[in-house]
Amino acid sequence: MEELLRRSEKLTTVGQLAAGVAHEIRNPLTTLRGFLQLQQQSKKLNVEHTSLMLSELDRINLIVGEFLILAKPQATRFTTKDVRTVLKEVMSLLDSEAHMYNVVFSHSLTDASCLVSCEENQLKQVFINLLKNGIEAMPNGGRIHAHVARKQDQITISITDEGIGIPEDMIAKIGSPFFTGKESGTGLGMMISQRIIHSHQGLMEIQSQVNVGTTVTIMLPALNTQSNEGILKESEQ
Ligand code: ADP
Ligand code: MG
Q1: Residue 56 CB contacts under 8 Å (≥ 6 apart), including other chains
Q2: What ipTM was predicted for this assembly?
Q3: Would you say which domain of life the source belongs to (predicted)?
């Protein structure tokens, strides 16, 4: 019974998500169809039309692309990685983009080992989403600071920006599919990040103050050396 309930809850979420995706994709498709119809009636499309068509196509591509991150079951492979390494890799990946927006990255990392069991690409995607949101929240530039700490079996990663912040009544809505405060946002980044963190047995929290900045905190269970040995022994058997 409990299992059935859980299944039906899952179906509802998937159903809601599917309805949202369908809706979000239908809008740009309608625009594209309209323009093609215009062309068929031999009213030549001008540059404005075609550039709008391109941006609508890009939007569909962006939405589908974000969903592909979630829908790759065959690629889900959990390995042992140090969160500090993964985070530093993502920061250098985004460094030139940050630079373009006058954003500087900084970090303070614990000396303790921060091994986690993770699907590396998914975890990277979470960091990418959070850092991008930070950049987008600072139109005049600023600093994004990442702090990694370890307390017993928990690793805490917090990413702090000095951006526009989030009004309190908006915080609860973040992570709902397609909830965006941006003109050309997809509203998928936080939902996908939350799902990824939950599938890693972790938690994600948002703290924010308007015009001061935002801190997103992720908590992940740490693998200690002992449990690593445990995993090794198990796989050797
Ligand atoms: P998108 O970035 O495409 O809008 P997200 O799911 O990544 O979608 O974020 C949803 C919304 O949450 C954003 O549009 C923005 O309004 C708000 N948000 C998320 N992170 C931040 C941040 N660091 N600072 C300010 N607002 C944020
Ligand atoms: Mg985003």
Answers
A1: 28, 29, 31, 32
A2: 0.99
A3: Bacteria
164 Cβ below 6 A of ligand 1? yes
State the pTM of this model: 0.82
Tokens (6 digits) for 91: 């920061």
Pocket test for ligand 1, best of 158, 168, 169, 190 (most atoms within 8 A of CB): 190
Residue 164 has which token pair?
């526009």
Q: How far is the CA of 166 from the centre of ligand 1 (A)?
A: 8
